[in-house]
Write a structure and sequence with these properties.
The complex is a heterodimer of chains A (about 220) and B (about 300). Chain A has helices spanning about 1-40, 40-65, 75-105, 110-140, 145-175, 175-200, 205-220. Chain A is mainly alpha-helical. Chain A has one domain: Up-down Bundle (Growth Hormone, Chain: A), CATH 1.20.1250. In chain A, α3 runs antiparallel to α4 (about 110-140). Chain A is elongated, with a radius of gyration of 18 Å. By secondary structure, chain B is α/β, with parallel strands linked by helices. Chain B folds into two domains: about 5-65, no CATH class; about 75-295, Rossmann fold. Chain B is about 35% helix and about 25% strand. Chain B has an eight-stranded mixed beta sheet. In chain B, strands 1-2-3-4 form a four-stranded antiparallel beta sheet, covered by helices on one side. In chain B, α5 (about 145-155) packs across α6 (about 180-190) and α6 runs parallel beside α7 (about 205-220). Chain B is globular and about 50 Å long. Classes of the chains: A mainly alpha (about 220), B alpha/beta (about 300). Chains A and B meet through α1, α5 and α6 of A and α5 of B.
């Protein structure tokens, strides 16, 4: 039983790390994607960071709610595949969308804000759901929840740092933007598969005892 | 033991102070803009615009205080070599303003020329006006916006220019989205028949090869102008076929009287306008998908 739990925990941490990595990698590439249409001025970065922050905050909210109802690793995997699928239009139709926005918005500030919204909001919000759901999958006892959340943020934010560094220092020098984005989509799909396989192998029995505990906790507040 | 860090600090501070003082005798004006640090310094009768001065002196543009018509930098003079391809421009677009020197010369030589001057940084427009004698005339429209955004808008308005000057690169940072195949395609489509594109860039890093290959992929054959004593080079490209040397020489002779008072010797440039690629032609092109210009420059 403890081994199964360990496998599950490491799986969650690895996937959370990957999602942190991918979020920041995409955010950095966002600046590149928008520059041909809206320039690379400070407001373009302002638009991108705003959109990512708002998307993540809604993701956290929704992910937290979704974690209430019989959480399991296979459902967790669905976030990854959903993020992968919703990122595909960004790659395929990004230029068409930015063209559309460019022709309708004279001011590049609002143009870049709307374009960043269209291109990145949905996949980023879905990636944001992963963090609270991860906490739910990892927490076994209520009084450990702070430590578990701390460890999770540690791992996923380190992932973000590494995603930022590798993308800006090396990936852009070696690959095209779309090559990097497609790789991210494939990585997300792999995360989905890993979650499904591990779920099949170790099951989700570890969760049951916790569920009641946490729900009473929530109910008490 | 406790004092050691302070000594280091004082030492570092002194170093910083002396290094900032050494680049110019007198700092006349200092300003942090949205995009860069702008410093105006005066030294030996010259007034210079410097962007970001931390590591080394990088004068963007200088004027002779006593004789503002004298263009101090050779690469600025070299820009006018592009006129040998199209000696009578009527509508110009200039991306990147610097001290405004080039636009002032152009509008005084060509009284019928109208010029769209695009500069991303309002602070640069301000210092050009306050310190470098830039005057906005009826001939010049100043647009404070990103060059790429302006070019795209101009294309959707179906604008045509017979003179386009790309001069948006400071010594510190290259706007990477202004050095891609897609951007240059946009520029090419803005060119009127017989129009000329002049780009003021650098030689001497691996970026040189990538950039040259990118320009030639879009425009075909180029003139590549390099002069001794400057790390800059000027690319001259045209929508039409490049003129032969006789035509260049004839244009130089025709234009020379106008340029005499700026001490620009156009004829001197003709033999140095090289048609043969001296770059590695197999280098990867810069595109919107692949544009690590600043990383390539440091290689």
């Amino acid at each position: 039983m403890p081994t199964k739990r360990r496998v599950k925990n490491w799986t969650v941490l690895t996937l959370a790390f990957t999602s942190g990595f991918i979020i920041m990698s995409i955010e950095l590439l966002g600046g590149r994607v928008l520059a041909p249409y809206f320039g690379s001025s400070i407001y373009v970065w302002g638009s991108i960071i705003t959109v990512f922050m708002v998307a993540l905050s809604f993701g956290y909210l929704i992910g937290g709610h979704l974690s209430l109802k019989s959480p399991r690793l296979s459902k967790y995997g669905l976030f990854f595949v959903a993020a992968a699928i919703t990122a595909v239009p960004t790659i395929l139709f990004g230029d068409a969308m930015m063209d559309w926005v460019f022709l309708r918005f004279e001011d590049p500030r609002y143009g870049s804000l709307l374009a960043a919204m269209l291109l990145f909001f949905v996949p980023t919000a879905i990636l944001g759901m992963i963090a609270p759901y991860s906490v739910r999958l990892l927490v076994e006892e209520t009084h450990h929840s702070g430590r578990v959340a701390g460890g999770l943020y540690f791992i996923s934010t380190l992932g973000s740092a590494l995603g930022t560094l590798l993308t800006s220092f090396y990936f852009v020098l070696l690959f095209e933007i779309n090559e990097i984005l497609v790789t991210m989509v494939i990585a997300l799909a792999c995360c989905f598969l890993i979650a499904m396989i591990v779920d099949r192998k170790v099951g989700t029995t570890v969760e049951t005892e916790v569920e009641t505990e946490v729900e009473t906790e929530v109910g008490a507040k | 033991m406790m004092i050691a860090p302070y000594i280091k600090l004082v030492f570092a501070f002194t170093l910083l102070l002396t290094s900032t003082l050494s680049y110019g005798d007198k700092v006349v004006h200092r300003e942090k803009s949205l995009y860069q640090n702008i410093v105006i310094s005066e030294e030996a009768g010259k007034r210079c615009l410097v962007f970001s001065v931390k590591r080394q002196q990088r004068n963007q543009t200088c004027i002779d205080i006593n004789d503002p018509s004298h263009i101090v930098f050779p690469y600025v003079r070299m820009t006018f070599a592009g006129l040998l391809v199209n000696p009578k421009p009527s509508r110009g677009l200039m991306i990147g303003m610097g001290g405004g020197t080039i636009s002032s010369v152009l509008t005084s030589i060509y009284p019928d020329l109208t010029l769209d001057l695009v500069e991303v940084d309002q602070a640069v427009v301000n210092v050009a006006t306050d310190y470098f004698g830039f005057k906005k005339t009826d001939q010049i429209d100043v647009h404070v916006t990103d060059g790429r955004v302006f070019a795209r808008r101009a294309l959707s308005r179906k604008e045509q220019y017979d003179l386009i000057i790309l001069d948006a690169f400071t010594g510190e940072y290259i706007p990477e989205h202004l050095m891609t195949v897609e951007f240059l395609e946009n520029i090419k489509r803005l060119l009127a028949p017989g129009g000329v594109v002049i780009a003021n860039t650098f030689s001497g890093s691996s970026l040189y090869h990538h950039e040259s290959a990118t320009y030639s992929a879009v425009f075909g054959p180029l003139f590549n102008l390099k002069m001794r004593g400057t790390g800059n080079r000027v690319i001259v490209a045209s929508a039409a076929d490049l003129p032969d040397t006789e035509t260049l020489m004839a244009n130089a002779e025709m234009l020379q009287p106008d340029f005499e008072r700026y001490k620009i010797d156009l004829q001197k440039y003709v033999p140095r306008m090289n048609r043969d690629p001296d770059w590695e032609t197999d280098k990867r092109l810069l595109t919107d998908q692949y544009a690590p210009a600043n990383l390539l420059r440091d290689r």
